[in-house]
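Follow-up to my earlier ticket, as requested here are the two runs.
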Amino acid sequence: MFSLADKNLFEILWKKKQVIDTLTARMMVTMGNTSSWDATMIRKAKHILGLMTAKHLKLLKKDAIRGALADLNNVEFKRLDVKAAMSSKVIEALGGRENATAWTSDDIINSDQFIRHSPWVIARLGESSFKSALKTLCQKTMKRKQTVLYAKRLKKSKEFRDPSKVDVAKLREIGCLLGSMGENYIKHISDDVLGQSIEVIKKSDLSRAEFKKRRGWGKVARQLGTLMRVLKPSELSALTFDDLALGCLQKTQLDMQVTDIQVRRHRDSAIHLSQHSQANILFDKVQRRLGVTLAHRPECFLRWNCFVRRAVSASSIDSLPAERDALIQAAGALADKDQNYMDTCVMEASVAKQLALKLYEKYENVHQRDILPVSVGGIENKVIDTVANYLAYLNPKTWETLLPTQASRIIPIVGLGVRGVSSRTYSKLKDFALKNVYDELSDKVVDRRKTPTLEADDLDDLGVLRCYLTPADLARLTAAAIESHLADMHTCPLSVRQGRALYKAYANHFPYVYRDLLVNLENSFFREMLFVCVKQYRCD
């Protein structure tokens, strides 16, 4: 499997040295030798700099690198020697590590990925410039090793040298580096300052050892968000319903991210591993206080957000409201609409399937009377949207019982947040979707499974199901469809056969593929097509 994403281009290319050599040679013909590149040319070629050899990168001019540096921070390098060569050129372009004290905050921000593993450079960064750059640096994704180096530099500053003098304002400036400042540093920050800085603390990568030093933090665990993960089951169990503010009357959504914790238990001299889910502990507290019935109200599900999805079980599904509208609301509150949620915030597929069956049972009793047409607003459209979240868990035969107008509304949002469903099921959903495409011009639902072409609007209607188009489907794409949706498909888990079909469809509509790619590298549409082109080794 491969994906048309930037990072996967390298996985494809480094396995085929002859492809790299061919690509590099043709780049030199088209763009000239790297020694002649100016800043504009470097910007244009930034997406394939990581494919070049250290020899080519060493020829880049210092002034050209500095001029293009602001656009190079997200370039990915697969080989360490190539990354090292580029890092050396960047540091040299900025005046060398000896002059790092003179670097501006912009220099630090723009060179971040090239200096993050260079302690000699980071240690010499100017105090004022580094402090100014820190807020922007904290918005990036940094590994622990990098934050430790930056934290060491920060602790050398006069303002941050003594942790006992760190106030709330300074703690906010430390920001994302707090978790890397060290246990000894954190324990000397006053409790009052820490108590007023929950928003900073909750975003920090604090280890359990550092967390334990702050007595009383458990009482504000509900405010700590991601730091919930460091609590042991016994510590979480010791906190009360009120400590964690688990009531449903408040309208604000709880900001908690839970985790599954493995606990070793001794029994008959054998060691058994059992899963103690923080989500289950929290939901148990809720049911003990509110009772099973009240604990399954939709408004509570909306407030509890993450942990209730993980805690809901087969028995919980049986406890959901029997009344149709209440069940619809509860199912909607439990639906995972955000694919960025961590796995511990996602409902188990088997439980989701059981909920889907219960939901459809209610839906099936009323849909034949056509009371859920697309034209009806309010709660009825919400019913259709909720059904969409669980459609993939139902038997394909049940899809056919949907009214065509309902099916065409449901299809674009099917699959968002679905977990544990096979690609085969998605393929069947794709066929069902193409059978029920809504045509605005005729105001009818039409079958597009065997039409000569697939238009851009058809792919709009498919939503995430466009990832499951067959090679035959891809061959029917129009030029407008490819141009509109190629970038959208870059995260799709396309097979080699799908990739080859997509490339052929592109080549048929845009015959000068390779020439266009090389002169349009700054265009994401052409760049995405390069990945397909290279994958097939047909860049002629």
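Run two:
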Amino acid sequence: MIAVANKGYRAITFDFRGGLSNQRAEQEKANFQVLVEDIIGAILVGKDFGAFQAYLVPADHPERVSGVMTRGDGMSQGEQKKILGRFDVKPVIYAGL
């Protein structure tokens, strides 16, 4: 995030409930749906654990998201097709920097 901000972009990162910005989350209330409801934005970027939530936000709130980019979501192709099949998905694979 710091490298992105240093390039002149506005970089906002997600802080889970109970993260550095607030009190500890109640463990029994912590689940994927709670995390999905916390995420609101124009373009979501998710990596690893956050990729799955990035997919679920437009599934539940398509009017609130204009794009999603993910890396390393850990899902099978079948799972991806099930979740992303109803969206205009453009897969991009780029190896290297």
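The only thing I checked on run two: Residues 55 and 83 are 7 Å apart (CA to CA). Let me know what else you need.
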